Amino acid sequence: MKIDLTNLITESRNTASQHIDTLSTIDMLKVINDEDKKVALAVEQTLPEISQVVDVITEAFKKGGRLIYTGAGTSGRLGILDASECPPTYGSKPEQVVGLIAGGHTAILRAVENAEDNRELGEGDLKDLNFNGKDVLVGIAASGRTPYVLGAMAYAKSVNATVACISCNPNSLMTKAADISITPIVGAEVVTGSSRMKAGTAQKLVLNMLTTGAMIRSGKVFGNLMVDVEATNAKLVERQKKIVIEATDCSREEAESALAACNGHCKTAIVMVLAQLNAEEAKQLLDNNKGFIRAAIAAGK
Q1: Residue 244, helix vs strand vs coil
Q2: Percent of all residues in the chain with a pLDDT value above 70, rounded to a whole number
Q3: Looking at the 3D structure of the chain, how many domains does it have?
Q4: Looking at the annotation, which residues are catalytic?
Q5: Mean pLDDT of the chain
Q6: What is the CATH number of the domain that holds 97?
């Protein structure tokens, strides 16, 4: 299979770092840092598209759909990282956001040769998840041409699911295949072709926005507090108490009492304190208002 990388911005040579191997360590790092500063500005240009995808994911969640990431190499690992952080941060079910990587579990730690070149593997991995039209697929690849991802995108389209992509080259095959294309143009890498650097950073920023935005829109954030956090270790037990105190301005004793009464369900504890209700009443209000604290409190007045 002949691959032409000559027209890919992510594979071009960066004039700012052409002599980076001759610089002192501090000057070398300054070059890297100066290039990294461009990433957030590139992502800023794609906010309208990111917003569209957040809204699509939110609607999918409301209907019981899932967010599935698919990628190879660094891109696949970033999707897995973002997906794996959702349950401990937002108390979401592990199957609600899933990351797939070409080559499977082995590829998370070690490259699996040729897996990214297999379109059928991308389709097969989605079939193994029983991917369907209620779900949302986000393909991730800096180049915008990875066959594994394109195979998954084509299958997702065939079952009438919404398909988005994140890449760093304009007018790519993935861009043309997606319903919504997020394309932060970060330019040439400091080390030519090392797209785990600026392109990877851009992908991580976008992924952060997608899940954080969808979780906020799903009622899992009150103010800027992650109120659906599950206390699965000592640090998170303490964090829950702090969140209840911050959200309600109550005492530590009141927070501990409320959390104990509702079996450590942070949202319920907050509604209990703010609306002066018992645990059962607060839980019922939350259930009636789809887990949104503000709506639950307003309904309880």
Answers
A1: helix
A2: 96
A3: 2
A4: 85, 116
A5: 92
A6: 3.40.50.10490
